[in-house]
Amino acid sequence: MKKIILSVAAVFAFGFANAQDKNESSGFSKGSMFLSGNISYDSTKEGDLKSNQLTFSPTFGYFLTEDIALGGRLNVLSGEDEDETKTTEFGLELFGRKYWTASSQFSLFGELAVGFGSGKEEPAVGGENKYKAFGVNAGIGVNYFISSA
After folding, report:
1. In terms of CB atoms within 10 Å, which end of the chain has fewer, N or C?
2. Predicted TM-score (pTM) of this structure
3. Of 136, 72, 80, 138, whose CA–CA distance to 110 is shortest?
4. pLDDT by residue (tens digit) across 63-72?
């Protein structure tokens, strides 16, 4: 799987990298802000067992320089599994990103994030289980600018 992801990233990097006139500007600059995020719904059924899960994760970032951004991400999850146990989770992540711009339309970034949150499971038979979480993670990402600003 790693080889496939890295191959796709390499194709994008070489496919979009080209010489650009210095007067063209695209991408980020100091003081730029961005809003992104993720909404996903997962539903599975295996025999009589079924589960579903809805996740919402908006992200906001602010550029301190043209290649360093700080931001935050809200994570909200709601789901129900095969034994009708309801799960809700809420969390917040703070992150820092370093961007490398390969061309005026394409950039890569590395991210380091620290997150914390809490959750609750409520089985159909009664009672509840509350928990708290803390984590540190690192990742990479890709930006492609469809047009210049």
Report:
1. N
2. 0.70
3. 138
4. 999 899 999 9
